[in-house]
Amino acid sequence: MNIYALSSGRGPSGIAIIRISGKETLKICEKITKLKSIKSNEVNFCKFYDPKNDKVIDPEALLLWFPGPNSYTGEDLAELQIHGSNAVINALFKVLSEEENCRLAEPGEFTKLAFQNDKIDLLKAESIGDLINSETEFQREQAVKLVQGNASNYYNDLREKIIKSLAYIEAKIDFAEDDLPEKVLKEAHKSIKNIHSDISNIIEDNKIGEKIRDGFHVLITGEVNAGKSSLLNLLSKREVAIVSDEAGTTRDIIETYLNLDGYPVILSDTAGIRDVKNKVEKKGISLALGKSKESDLNIVVIDNSSKNINNKIKKMINKDTIVLLNKSDVQDKQNHKFDVDTVLASVKNNKNIDKLINKIKEKLSKKFSLKNNSHLITRERHRIKLNECRKELDNFLKKDQSKDLELAAEDLRMATRHLGSIAGKVDVEEILGSIFKDFCIGK
Ligand SMILES: Nc1nc2c(ncn2[C@@H]2O[C@H](COP(=O)(O)OP(=O)(O)OP(=O)(O)O)[C@@H](O)[C@H]2O)c(=O)[nH]1
Ligand SMILES: [Mg+2]
Question: pTM for this structure?
Fold first, then answer.
């Protein structure tokens, strides 16, 4: 089966790129360009035709032809660069759909083929998706690291170290009667202990990689009518939440996604905290209080002219929060003092909001040590596999190796399997075989 899809965004645009992958790619290209010889890995200047009626679809276009296996998918692949109007794209799609054994690709199918044909590992496939979807600078940087294979190399190194220890243990099992020095087992144990601690460090990373990928949760909470929804609208540059001078306007949690100077942030506006009887507002307040416990950062908004601050709000303020004393245009003298980060601002006049943004960035980067560039886990899937791997290493370390050698070997085998499945490598036996063979020759 041959597949095709639009690889660039939907037009109208100067150029659109359609990819075709599959065994008959060249045949299809020859048919729709009428070119006698299509040069590989070079630009072919051409016209595209509808072979049914010989009418020209695009009079000036380019064709790039990459014979497999040296192509993105590992199969024969062509890139058709055509004028990016919807009409040209649709006409060419119609022609391709009328070809035998040719269908529209499913989402991600080209990359799936690349994985299946061993062109890329799973981590790279995921990171290509992340790079395509990256919206902020942090997300782009993280995806670039993964596309370049930083995480894959790291996991592969760890995995190979486990396999080496496993080879020692296998040798001890197979050549029990020979005098393999006890030292060998001790070294294997020590190496696994180090790997265990490396994996623990990766797991206990405050979920930074996932946060960069999915966004940091920042919550706007505080007094009623203090300007929380106004702040949400100002930061997201659109009217997301209703603003009104009526206290208790917001009840539901309103979320919006934004790029705060490179920081991906999921910003939530909530109901103001106060003591009320109204059932709906009460529910909104309890939602807000619950959410404030899970978020990465709380911005507590207080009207600078307020006389008394509700106790529940006071309790929310700690060194991990930022207090925004709002409406400085009404009262410009700071009315409340807190020994935490406080910004006196006016949302209405967009005064000192830049200071608030800087504080948000500062807090997030401190809490998640963003300067450290070793974030490896970007998905829950990786975390689950690492946890499973660590569990097996735990089992191994707990065993008395002099008695349970076979079982200890099985623990390590499982550990390599979990680690390998992060990047999509599961054929442990093969690598194990080669290392073990070398070990025996060297003995
Ligand atoms: N003077 C002044 N008024 C503001 C400022 N920010 C917001 N307001 C006004 O304060 C009122 C309440 O604003 P909202 O943004 O709805 O406040 P809220 O905290 O979301 O209110 P609830 O959802 O009811 O808790 C509106 O009339 C806003 O126009 C400000 O910086 N200065
Ligand atoms: Mg509101």
Answer: 0.78
